[in-house]
TrEMBL record:
<dbReference type="GO" id="GO:0008758">
    <property type="term" value="F:UDP-2,3-diacylglucosamine hydrolase activity"/>
</dbReference>
<keyword id="KW-0479">Metal-binding</keyword>
<dbReference type="GO" id="GO:0046872">
    <property type="term" value="F:metal ion binding"/>
</dbReference>
<dbReference type="InterPro" id="IPR029052">
    <property type="entry name" value="Metallo-depent_PP-like"/>
</dbReference>
<dbReference type="GO" id="GO:0016020">
    <property type="term" value="C:membrane"/>
</dbReference>
<feature type="region of interest" description="Disordered">
    <location>
        <begin position="302"/>
        <end position="321"/>
    </location>
</feature>
<protein>
    <recommendedName>
        <fullName>Calcineurin-like phosphoesterase domain-containing protein</fullName>
    </recommendedName>
</protein>
<dbReference type="InterPro" id="IPR004843">
    <property type="entry name" value="Calcineurin-like_PHP"/>
</dbReference>
<feature type="domain" description="Calcineurin-like phosphoesterase">
    <location>
        <begin position="55"/>
        <end position="254"/>
    </location>
</feature>
<keyword id="KW-0472">Membrane</keyword>
<dbReference type="Pfam" id="PF00149">
    <property type="entry name" value="Metallophos"/>
</dbReference>
<dbReference type="GO" id="GO:0009245">
    <property type="term" value="P:lipid A biosynthetic process"/>
</dbReference>
<keyword id="KW-0997">Cell inner membrane</keyword>
<dbReference type="InterPro" id="IPR043461">
    <property type="entry name" value="LpxH-like"/>
</dbReference>
<keyword id="KW-0464">Manganese</keyword>
<keyword id="KW-1003">Cell membrane</keyword>
Amino acid sequence: MFGGYLAGEIGNSGLSANERDMSADKGAALAALADIAARAPSVPERSPQGRRKYRTVWISDVHLGTKGCNANLLIDFLDSVDSETMYLVGDIIDGWRLKKKFYWPSEHNDIVWRLLKRARRGTRIVYIPGNHDEMFRQFTGLNFGGIEIRRAAFHDTADGRRLMVLHGDEFDAVMLSHRWLAFVGDAAYHLVMGLNRWVNLTRRALDLPYWSLSKMAKHKVKNAVEFIGKYEEVVARAAGERGVDGVVCGHIHTAEHRMFEHDNRHIEYWNDGDWVEGCNALVEHADGRMEILHWPDEVARREAAHEADQPKAPPVMVEAA
Ligand SMILES: [Mn+2]
């Protein structure tokens, strides 16, 4: 079982990813995936017929391996929607939490099973590990059962926009220091981006959990709205500096679409939300139009439509006056 593989794998975390034998890790991970693919899921898959078809789907912050993950809603989403390309934008599996407390119900296997099945049916799946599943970053460039692992990606929309796709924890250190950053500019920005890595490597060596931006935003920063707004600005600015038209990220568990300006160009910021609270997905239609779906609303709409389709009691005949 995949969670077991992870708990074991993360168990030897005294060593850095580089020090461990990557090919042995890859073999163990592939064996765990093959095991999941070979079993029937505990929640049977609905027929792929009649699924909504999108050009692209982005989801992130699923946090498999935690009680917070809304696995059944995600199973419903995966059984209702298909796409040519699917991006898994990080924090799909919560390795940090699995290491502390093992939690892996059968529905979490079912989700991995569905992703593997989807890749086999021909969906291009790109997995960009986040900070909670950073143990997969060591496999960047490899292909797992048809799922490509990347550190970041560029996505070209049907109408010709180029979007940078990344998880978004890359900006945590910038956010930590955003109060003084406003006064010192670019050099400090790049320095801090480099520091972030060392901060989290040190925290890991001390067995501290990864510093969580979303938790900080929710619990420690008085003005969370301002904090999230600033994060969106920082990410959009990085996209502007890369010369792309926009960015898709996750990480802060807040689905959003905003437009920014950078060097007199429009930069679009998209966040695909999470499957812990919001249960959101970002989708691209065939013409390049993009939309954030809030899946609980979609389920409610479907159920209301289903009710309307049910045969009603025959109308009472009223005699003509
Ligand atoms: Mn994250």
